[in-house]
Amino acid sequence: MLNHRPQTQSSLEFVCINELVPEDHLLRKVDKAIDFDFIHPLVEDHYCPDNGRPALDPTLFFKILILGYLMGVRSERQLMRDIQVNVAYRWFLGLNLTDSIPDASTLSQNRRRRFNDSNVYQEIFDQIVLQAIRRKLAGGHILYTDSTHLKANANKNKHQRIIAKASVKSYLDELDQAVAEDRIAHGKKPLPPGKEKVETKEIKQSTTDPDSGYMVRDNKPRGFFYLDHRTTDGQCNIITDVHVTPGNVHDSRPYLDRLDRQVRRFDFKVSAVGLDAGYMSTAICKGLEDRSIYGVIGYRRPNHKKGYFRKLEY
Q1: 268-282, pLDDT tens digit by residue?
Q2: Residue at which a domain ends, from 68, 86, 118
Q3: Residue 281 in 3-state DSSP?
Q4: pTM score
């Protein structure tokens, strides 16, 4: 039988916002897994305790940022519009149905200016990883690392050519030290220090986004990119490190430093690592051997001229 429901919504209702969010909602799982109470003590030095206008609550601010990443909302204005009407978002942020939400420009200015020249974002990331470790979700015994390219918001045709320093000094210093130790062990005098030679090369620098790098790789688009280097723990695939470099920086350059940082920060006892073929270099192989870490690194078939035999075919 046809039924007609009157469209009247003028009645007052007493509701509990907690009952309006489904039990299996992703934000319920995040709220249960992560304790955000550490944020206030972490950032209190960046606020004046007794002067000025009341600032945007820092816990609310960072939860809004996390919410945007989780839900794939890249526009801050769109994110604030979604928070205005989405009950689950309001519940996750600790807002009631009638609470006002921050303005998009307030969120933007806090993100861009509030924590400049500080490591607050890194510390928040580390604290969440430490919570995962305490819950036995990450052990730090086997780590996997790879990088992916992120397109910069820059036209590849708008650039200038500059001279940049091409240096592998840290690795060469390690080789010189190894040679000196070997000579001393065999009763020989160390070699005199050689004259440092600074190598330079010409690179393209974007006039729109100078921090990006012009990437030229096989089977990859050319243009200005960033490289997002990520390390995951082999136990539950928890991301334990994120590091961003310009797109023209080789994968292997920051790897050992980031590995050492994880060992220091989280007290990891790394026994093995899995790496993409882009990380295959002499420096990384030696670094892993010096650290007594078993490395499993992908193999990349070398390029050769068409019509010529490969080395393995001889």
Answers
A1: 999 999 998 888 888
A2: 118
A3: coil
A4: 0.81
